[in-house]
Amino acid sequence: MEYRIADRGLAPSGEKKIRWAKQYMPVLRFLENRYGAARPLEGTVISACLHLEAKTACLLILLKELGAVVVAAGSNPLSTQDDVCAALVENGVAVFSRHGMTVEEYFENVRSTLAVGPNIIVDDGADLVATVHTEMKHLLPGIRGGSEETTSGVKRLKSMAAEGILAFPMISVNDAHSKYLFDNRYGTGQSVMDGLLRTTNMLVAGKTVVIAGYGWCGRGVAMRASAMGARVIVTELDPHRAFEALMDGYEVANMAEAAPRGDIFLTLTGNTKVIRREHFEVMKDGAVLGNAGHFDVEICKPDLGELSLSVEESRPGVQTYSMNDGRRIHLLGEGRLVNLACGDGHPIEIMDLSFALQLESAVYLAKNTLKPGLYDVPAEIDRAVMEAKLASLGISLDGMTPEQEAYMKSWVE
Ligand code: NAI
Fold first, then answer.
1. Are residues 386 and 357 in the same domain?
2. Residues 123, 256 within the same domain
3. What is the DSSP string of 278-290?
């Protein structure tokens, strides 16, 4: 088995992290019991590009146990945990990643992950899909399909499908109810605050926190920041979401108005250059900036570099830009996903749901032949994942009585 990681000797520490995560992943354990004997992925080759930390390792090891050959790249240089990569290799998953890899290394790893010739792709941000459509087209005929984890990846897939170039079916895990309602909202809500607190040791209460983007992620972070006592200002492009933020009790402003007032800025838009030169120019001394959107383009680092005299790592995970006029602006995790670059990412129980959807999507793709295009997770899978979660909590649902069923179908009152 070929692999490229930092140090295989780190495996014992990675194994501990994986064991810890697995105990809080009842839905994956349920699927392990359900599919374990049948091994529905026997004979498939899976290439994955995901944040390589302990929860992801639980998914990758299970995919392998269900019969697949699994090869994985880390989807972000700062979210890759070297000890987890080592443990994955010990468990027979080929890994190409190391913490802190350069952009060139990252794409080299993506190519190595694809070189195995996958039948199924598990992507987070659509770099595997984009690379196989541009540089490695000879692999396209062997690919049955894939699944995509995040909003920004789905956005890229939609563009590819609209241009008519998406050559195989892709399932949008992100758009399943069991995903975005919980992962994007509550997962990001908690883990972004966790990343911020771990790296800065700052008090949130009484601070003005500016949240760019009131989508599923932004709603979650606004809710948690506000619950910790912050004054929240939301910036938006979309009038409905802006008004929703207002109805939820937050102030809404544009970034030009918010920039001089914020103590902490968090971007969650999936867009580019949301905070840029004209905003940095008017920020307070000591302003803290973090991004939780998928790509590190939301906070314009080149502008920040041009406006500053020097940059230093003032605490682990904090880059302090000393501006020409003496102000300091602190950037968390190099502007990469703050919850993963400066923490362990989403809470375990949340990723249990998202990864159950990924696993079910892989099984579905192995069993079914679909035409190229972008697909939703089948509704019955989405519901079954949620039911398995509720069952693990001992929570029962009501069922409809025959009278209720008839009532719901009729139009006569
Ligand atoms: P969404 O589409 O629900 O929300 C994005 C919001 O940002 C929209 O309301 C949009 O109108 C707004 N927006 C776009 N450009 C803007 C601008 N220039 N200024 C202000 N608002 C703007 O997307 P979702 O699901 O909330 O995801 C947001 C980003 O977070 C994506 O990049 C996604 O891939 C990523 N993500 C990150 C996670 C993490 O662990 N950090 C977890 C899940 C998603």
1. yes
2. no
3. HHHTTPPTTEEEE
Structure tokens at 3: 């692999």
- Calculate mean pLDDT across residues 319-344: 96
How many structural domains does the chain have? 2
Q: Looking at the predicted structure, is the pLDDT value of residue 413 above 90?
A: no
CATH number of the domain within which 237 lies = 3.40.50.720
CATH number at residue 13: 3.40.50.1480
Q: Which atom of ligand 1 is nearest to the CA of 274?
A: 18
List the residue whose alpha carbon is closest to atom 23 of ligand 1: 215
- Structure confidence at residue 57 (pLDDT): 98
| Cα 154 to averaged position of ligand 1 atoms, centre (Å) | 12
Is position 380 within any domain?
Answer: yes
Tokens of 116: 């195995």
How sure is the predictor about 96, in pLDDT bands with cuts at 50, 70 and 90? very high
**Considering the domain boundaries, does residue 314 fall inside one?**
yes
pLDDT in tens, 107-166: 999 999 999 999 999 999 999 999 999 999 999 999 999 999 999 999 999 999 999 999
Q: What's this model's pTM, rounded to 2 decimal places?
A: 0.93
Other Cβ atoms within 10 Å of 299 Cβ, number: 28
Which residues contact ligand 1 via a Cβ below 6 A?
Answer: 150-152, 180, 183-184, 188, 212-218, 235-238, 241, 268-271, 274, 292-294, 337, 339, 346
| 164-184 per-position pLDDT tens digit | 999 999 999 999 999 999 999
Whether 43 and 53 have beta carbons less than 8 Å apart is answered as no
Tell me, yes or no, whether 410 lies in a domain: no
3-state helix, strand, coil in the chain (%, to 5): 50, 20, 35
For residue 299, give its domain range.
188-341
Same domain for 357 and 321, yes or no, is no
